[in-house]
Each structure stands twice: as structure tokens, then as C-alpha cells.
Model the fold of this input.
Amino acid sequence: MPNMSLSKIPMPEQDPNIRNRNFSEVTLGYTAEMAQEEATRCLNCKHKPCVDGCPVNVRIPEFIQKVVDGDFEEAYQIILSTNCLPAVCGRVCPQENQCEAKCVRAIKGESVAIGRLERFVADYHMQNSVSLVEKPVSNGHKVAVIGSGPAGLSCAGDLSGRGYEVTIFEAFHKAGGVLVYGIPEFRLPKAIVQKEIDNLKAQGVEVMTNMVIGKILSIEELFEMGYESVFISSGAGLPSFMNIPGESLIGVYSANEFLTRSNLMKAFDNQYDTPIRNSKRVAVIGGGNVAMDAARTAKRLGAEDVYIVYRRSEHEMPARLEEVHHAKDEGIIFKNLCSPTMIAGNDDGQVCSIELVEMELGEPDESGRRRPIVKIGSENRLEVDTVVMAIGTSPNPLIRSTTKGLETNKRGCFVVDEKMATSIPGVYAGGDAVTGAATVILAMGAGKIAAESIDEYIKSRYTNG
Amino acid sequence: MFTIVKKRVLNEAVTLMEVHAPFIARKAKAGQFIIFRVDEFGERVPLTIADYDREKGTVTIIFQAVGKSTKLLAQKVEGDDILDFVGPLGKATDLDGYKRACVVGGGVGCAIAYPSAKALHDLGAQVDVIAGFRNKDIVILEDEMKAISDNLFIATDDGSYGQKGFVTDVLRSRIEGGANYDLVIAIGPVIMMKMIALLTREYNIKTIVSLNPIMIDGTGMCGGCRVTVGGQTRFACVDGPDFDGHLVDFDELMKRNTFYRKQEQEDSNHICRLNLKENEDA
Done:
């Protein structure tokens, strides 16, 4: 008999007023008892709507039944069969729009806590399993993957599982892409990302860091080196600014820079030499997950007042609801329906305030969200010493500009077909480099599809030729 | 790992290193840069490529020990490794089609200007080099610059070597004397580049400057290196590091370069204390 409780078992978390002073993980995860109890809420539906809601089709009811049985390792293996980064996805997937949105239990009450269960199972495996990763027998074919973010890792993992010799080329000194430079430690501990990457390496994937493809090697040269196919997952790295006066003042950051200094370069840790501004009052511009991450990071770095400045209302915010709640609990102040018009500085070129106008919502625009319109006479000023622009990114131009015949769209994203194939035979692309800024799990889904296509492509060359 | 195969101390603050980095050596061109990280705790620091040897697979860097990372790097010896070394980044300097070039270097900027002077020389242009230093003791690369230039002019602030005065004085007298340059390349302290650009604007001579703002990734990702050029925001790492000297907002760049001055001073005090302690122990 299923557990008919209408709500999820809550997940323990650090107290907001303690956690906003440290970088340890906010949420603490289920205990085995909690996980087993939550798992009994799953109805094990025959038509499995949750699985369709997952971009990598994790066999959700099957793994949850194993949790009910207490066979956590088997549950892990079921998740792993379609998702090579369970501990990551259990933490950062927007489950509320995916699997959990389709859950039958969500019709009346809360969905099953699929994400929390996935996280529990993955963490259990990391803590308790000693099983060695098996290195598949090589099929002798080499594939190059550009970028070690979620798309690249999932593509590399799947191809390596099929026997391909995969090399990942990473531009930074550390693998993980947005999982290490973008998402903060308190949401996704870097030790977990490192373990997932170590598993891929144990499986035979080679990771070469400090390799900026497009500069040190071209796509063409990768083929000359014997790679038979290339997957481009170079992410959406180029930060956007608002083009308002004052963006060059000292104290204005792109969210990319601010988060990279803290996450990848560990500015929060005194052992590291990375400098970051010692801010007291911070305005973060934007309403997405990146904006929440930047605001919560600023608070943890010691800022007293941290504002989210967003031009629409909370209802339109692209950030996950959970992240908005976490930010509010931690004391982040939301200034919704506000938009900056200029940043003012002092004689030394240091930020001292930001000028805002209030907005009201008009008719929906092409994105379906109501268009913000400036309220006349609503100008006001916010005294801040730091401004972080978290208003989006566009794809990095380095590969596009150095590869002839690689088709891109107006926004600079690679154009691919449903198999993730680009305009160059043997070259595939996926993740934010194709879609523009999106989610970890969508990028992973694209990596999986590309792996399948690359496998087909290489096999076809040998059967036809 | 990137092994230091050769080290040469050029003056008390400036060091030359040849680093084994065969992939970068294969692709490097004049004007491009690398980013190094000295150890796990170090910053990512950009340095312009001073030279390269495609056959030996080495890249030469010349740097002034000013911050913590460059000081730690300067302490390394031949055979040591540098943890991270990435490049070649940025666009190469466009040097085609010039007949009479003047390359102006200030201090350690001479090391950054040298590859462009050499490349122009190899392309058959007539190359004058004007190298400025504070005094005789810190003159670097004199033989190297002499070898690839038609005329080498050294200026020192105190007159202890070469001509007394600033590089701008030398450049003005060359131009007034009918040198008829069709290109000036100026690399050195921001204030020097600004003054050179102001001077060459009077004579309408095309002027390339190489900017070295604060950056992290060097691939267009962080946006920290943004500079205003001709009223537009450009990223030095991917759009530069070379820009038209007549269009760069040098004042803004000088301000932005002080972003972390306070923290750097604290770091620098920290190193001094360490050295002091070592000395006391010894």
C-alpha cells in the first residue's frame, strides 16, 4: 500500500542565518530512512509519465522501487544506465519542470521527491560503494570532445561505454565546465563533480586541460590527429552587458567573472591568491539561477546588503523556485520590477550607486512573458559598491571564428539537426553552444543524443566503406 | 606539466624563461599571449609571448616580478614545472604591408614588443626600435633588439645610458627628422602608450598598442578584460590584445588596472614578511 501523504518528506538543510556565512552545501540530503519512506509515495505507474519528463529518460519508478527495497546500490546502477552524473543532477536539475511536473502524485499534493531520491542514491553510492569502474574494451576508434561541462561529460561517458577512445579538451585548468566555474560550492560541492570526472577517467576517458580549441588546435587538426568525430560542447561563455553608462567602473562584474573568481579560483578560501572585491552592498542584475548564485555568493563573501534587481515580477523569474526561496531565507533583498539605467562612480572610478527605474508589466512579448514598461517618473537610486550583471550569455566565438563551413545562427549558436549533427560531416554539437544558456540536464541530454549519432556515424563509415 | 628548460635573469626584476609547451609553440604568433598558473593556489596571469621555437617546442616568456604569482614564478629554476600554461590566446598582430615601422617599448614592454619588431624585420620592413628604461641597470634585450632593427635608440629617464629622456622625445625627433613611419607599435606602461598615441595622432601615423588588462580565462568568458575602444566595449582577450592606439580609452584602463591594488599590496606585504622571516632564520 503506497504512502498517501500529500507532501514530500522535507530535506534537512543548514539554518539560513548560519549557511549565509559559509560555503558548505545548503541542503544536507535524506537519510536512508527518509529516502525509503519518501520512496513509498511512488505509485509505480505503468505509463511512467515521469520518465518522459526526463531529458535523459532515467528509469525513475524502477530505481525508486529499489530504494523502497533498501537496495540502494542497484538503484544507483539503474540511474547510471542512462545518466552518467546522478549526484550532479540530483542537486541541480529543475525537477519541478521535468520529471516531478509529470508525477501523478502532483495532481493532488506534492510530487514524489524524485530529485532528492536521486541525490540520496548517488551520495549513498559515493560513500559506500567500493566497486571499481570497469574500463570497456577499446574498439580502436578515437573521438574528440571539446569542453568538459555537462554536455561533454555525458557524451564522453556514453561513447567511452561503447568502447570509443575519447579525449576531452578543456580550456580551463580544471575539468567540469559550468559545474566548476559557474555553480557554487554551496549548491554543488566540487568534490562531487571531481568524483564524477574521476569515474570517467577510470573508465578510460582522457581529459586534457589547458587546451583552447580554436586556438591551440583547430577542428581540422583534430581530424588530422586521428579523431574520427568531434563533439563541440564549448558552452555559452560570453557574458552580456546592458550597455548602460558606468559598466566599466571598478566594482562592476559579469556574473561569469564574479562566480569564476569564487568557484573555480576559490576566492572565498584564503589559501588561494585570487582577489575578489570586499563588498558591503551589492546589486545583482537579473532573475535567473545565475543571479541567485551570484547574490548568495556575495552574501557569503561578507556583503551586508545584497539586492536582486529584476525587471519583471517574481512570477516571471526564470530561476528555480527553490533557489528564490533559498535566497530569500538567506536575507537577499528582492527589488523586482526595477531596471538599472546607469551605474555611478566616484573620482577613483569606483562604483558608488546604481540608478533604477520602476517597471510595470504590459502585454506578453515573443517569449510569452509580459513585457516590462518603464513607469514615468519612477527614477530612484540604490547605494551600492558592487554590481554584478547576470543577464545572460552567448556562445563563445573561438571555434565558430576558426572553423570554415561550420554553420551558426544569428545569435552565434551552432546549427544542428535532431541528431546534433552540424554542417560539417563528423562534427556534432550540443549543450549551451547550440541552445544558448540552458540547463545542465538539457546539455546532458544533447550529449547523449550526440554520442548515439557519433556511434552511428563511425559505424556507417566502416560498413559502407 | 610545462617544464622550464631555460632561465635567464635579465635584470633584478625581469626574468626570461623558455618553457616546454610544444602545442603552443606550433601555433604561436607575434602579439599573442599565454596564461600561466604557478601552482594550485595561484592566479591565472596573462603574459605576452616573447618568442617561440617551433622545432624545440618552446615558448619564451619575459616577465617582471610584480605580483605574488610572478614573484613565485621568478623563484623557479631550470627543470622546474609550471602547473598550467595555456595559449596561444588573443589575435596575432597584423603586420603585413608596412614599409617603415617604429617599435616603441617601455621597460619590460620591450619584451612584448620584440616579437613584433622581429616579425616586421623578417617581412622586410625597415624597423626602428625605441626602448625606454628608468636607468642603465634595467636595460634588457639590447643585443636582441639591435639584431632585428635598422636603428636602435635607447632612452633612460636619468640619462645613465643612451639618450636622456622619454621614448616620446625620441619618437618626436625621429618623426620631425623625416623618418616617415607608416606604423608605430607602442608597448609598455599604459601611460607611455597613451602619450605615444597622443603624439602619433598629431602626425596621423597608424599606432598599434598591446593591452594587458586584468583577466581570468583569456577566452572571452569572464569579461573582466573589457576595454573601451572607439566608444565600444571590447574584450582584450579575444578582440585584442592589440588595438588602435588612437581609439583606446587609456584613462579608463588605468583605473580598471587598480581594481585589486589594495589586495595586491596586502599580498605583497605578506611575501615581504615571509622573506624577512627566511632571512632572519638564515
